[in-house]
What we know:
Layout (H helix, E strand, L loop, with lengths): L3 H10 L3 H15 L4 H11 L5 H8 L3 H19 L6 H15 L6 H11 L4 H5 L5 H14 L4 H11 L2 H11 L4 H19 L7 H16 L4 H29 L6
Helix pairs in contact: 3-5, 4-5, 6-9, 10-12, 13-14
Amino acid sequence: MLSPREQQKWINKEIPFDTISIERLDRVRALGTLTRQERKVYCLSVDDGLTQKDIAEYLGITQGVVSATFNRARKKLDAYNTSKGNTPDDIVWALWKIFMRDYELPDLLDVEIEFVIRGLFADLLPFINWFYSIGELCRYILRYYLFDEDNIKQDIEKYLSTATQEEQEHFKNYYGEQAPIIQSVYVRLCMEVKRKEANRLQDSHKAIDGVYTAVEKIAKRLNLSVEECLKQRLYPYLAEKRNKRLKEFYRYYTGKKLHE
């Protein structure tokens, strides 16, 4: 039996009954990875829309316990959703949704991807212009990083075998001393650009324009200029967030704190 809410979802959106049933079964399996208390806290928050204060009062626990329990439950569900036999594209998309929600990825993967992107800094803007959005570019890099690591050497050799003298010199000057993963992501992006050019696609500023428009809307609500919004709000927030993750990464792999 479907719940009234699930029945209404089926009726309103004309989603096939089998699809709803499969989704329900998958949800039951996912929730089965949680402890009893984690299930209670998660369902009261997500399904019933209760606040942490309401949940704490209802279950007779503190708000701190509610917060910690909810975060633990969400991480378990994230792990389930990224390991249930999905395709590489499904996994990348699931990870991207986690990143857009938390601004970080499981197992400090966001720090590793940031390392790769920083290594591409000299060519990042031209690459961005060949993708519909910055998110699309990040997902492209993430997919390669996760699933094509075995192709690093052959991708570099393939690119250099057909690259012009100018392209080879650029690779040597900017990427010759970089880590192999950065070298391979660079050449893969170069090959992707050439593939798009061969299909008569053109670069554009859609990705950058999209970011500017988003920042412009935020700035307007805060009664700030775009430049002020970037300097006073966005940059400090991003710097604080990324520095925190870098410290966590360092501590995780060294067991030591990273001093200022």
